[in-house]
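Protocol step 6 of 9: fold each sequence in the batch and record its structure tokens directly after the sequence line. For illustration, a two-sequence batch is reproduced in full.

Sequence one:
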Amino acid sequence: MAVATPGPATQQARTGARTLFCVLGVSTPLLHAVVSIFKGALEGEGGACALVVGNTVSDMREGWAASGAGSPASTIFTSDSPDDTTVELFSRAGARMIVAVEDFVDAAIYLRAARGMSTPHALRFLTQTLSTLAPALTGGQALLLRSRHADAPLESLLACLFDFIGRDAIDVAAVLRRIGAAGEETLRGYAQTHFPFREAEPPPADELAVMRALAQSYQPLLSGRAMAAASWPTELFLDWDRPGDFLHGPVDLTGPARFIVCGPYLHLPLGRWRARFLVRIADNWSGNRMSLDIFSHEVLAGVAADLPAEGLYEFDVGFEVSSAYAPLEARIQIQQGAIEGAFELVAVDFVAEQPGES
């Protein structure tokens, strides 16, 4: 199986007599299958293996303490939504990290079906996971298992896993029996057998189009490359005049000073970014003033400007993402009451800035 491997593995992370491993990824049958197979393989090769599931360092510490009974020879930490501190901790500890990621759209469809999420919530969860995993996905030290590896035989996967962790040759047949699989079975086949799910109904065409549009921005991470740019579909932003409704065309400015557009509560990897908002103004004959800020627990950056009577205009603002786990919200408001006018959010794009750029 051709897998993008990180080169010479670092020394195995150990605490006491236990060897630590880390399996992270997007919540899909692929991740669940990799955890199951790896755990079964370790148990067959070297004694008991504890499984600790959590998203924060606190979760992991509690799970670690609880897993001590029976003195397992190894421990697998796993998460489908680790926060930034957890990913950093495993990287610093030198734990062998395996990251399993599925096709973006397939993962979003799975989250809809398996967790009952709406499309916007599934995309928020998915961009959160990928953004927090970005250092592991792009750092070159983790074993990255992607959709294209899912059709390789399990024998190849096991050989790859054990080569990555620096273990000697294993009894593949015995491991396959332990996990209830056949040698010619693929990772995808194993996942479908042991972690089946069924989509109640396919996403509507317009929601599928939004999934595909957003997928283009996060695709580099799935290939082990840094995200250089992103575009967020305007359909994911909320019309603040209509609680719970998403944007559908222009917003009527008539009314008091207020927030008019907020959202979309998606995520970006750590680092400095520059956002560009392209807007269209119409019939704003009395004039007004607009402010726009980027919010994530606090205001990260903002800009304000007088609105013209009509036309297509661009606003840009730079900001720092210090927590990829925290959602980002763009908040657009008019600062004066209006008796006429229309506002349309046309496009929202981001470009990653290099250190020192502003």
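Sequence two, same batch, same settings:
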Amino acid sequence: MVYLIMLWFSLIIVGHTNHIKRNIVYNINPKIGLKFLAASFPFWFITIFRYDVGTDYMQYLYGYYYEGIGESREKEIVFQSLIDFSHYINFPFFMITLFGTLVCFNTFYLIYKLSPNIKQSVILFFLSGFFFISLCMMRQAASTSLFFIALIFFLRRNYIIYFTITILCYFLHSTGGVYVLLGIIFILFDKIPCLLKLLKPKFLLLVTILIYVCGNLLRSQLMMLTQSIGIYGGYFGSDQDSQNSSGTFLIFGLTPFISYLLASLNNKGINDMVSGYRIKYIIFVIISWLSMISGILRSLIPNGERIIFLFEPISIISIPFFVKFTNSRFKRKSLYMSYLFFAVCVFWYFYYSRALDMFPYHTIFSTDLNIW
């Protein structure tokens, strides 16, 4: 209930500005900006003032703060610097506060700048699971939120700042290195027009089937590669790990790409996306496809949920974007189907299954009070 109240308050604030036209890349109206900063406040408040919510909470509060960083984290120099700084200011809650602030404010800033429908994006921030994941996988979520800011600079073709931010993502959480590689892929697709043909749904689905068929071989090769370079090995596990065929993360991964499939039924919409929003089209399609691939391979990868949530959060803005260009016959169906799929997954995984310790909710003001 506390999370639904949070969403409700945020949508009330958003409702006062959702109708205002914006230049989604360059101009900022300070008054509107303050309103959207206010719209993020309910999410920020619930995030910052929680206590022992999320399986990693105590690890950040006691493990990293009091025990320091482990050898497996020694390459993440930004993270180490944050631990040192929290010791310097003698504030154990510093990292929890910082990461929560980054996720909430950066995500709402992205929504403000790039979403064609702000209210839809705020709902998707909640339903897509990214908000809940950010309460547990705090560093990875903060890294992803920095990637959101990097995307804004990429759309301005300010590649230097994009790569600077994504390298920072890597030093905060090693998975952020994926975003550096994505930037190179985005540039290649933008500069070589013939590559756009590879983004057609039929081709992407064919490649997806081939990857799934070769899934076990692909995983074994990835295990060998990651073990040899000494990074990312934990994400692909070992041959002794049991497989997990949870359908929840399959749906999480598939949903962003399904919205693209429905948009592709409208040839005019696809042409309008490619001609008028070329870079956005490239970014959203590629990341949505990677989200789908991650969801499909979840049954082969022990820690696959972390890989899925490197890409799936793009649905916050990609789904409203695809819905905008979807045929009027399927427009509402596409949006509400996304809402429904995500809602079922969030309810089942976080509430019914009690995964990642999201319930009951506790506050730092009264740690013994259970709030549902």
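Proceed to step 7 once all outputs are recorded. Observation for sequence two: The chain has 19 helices and two strands.
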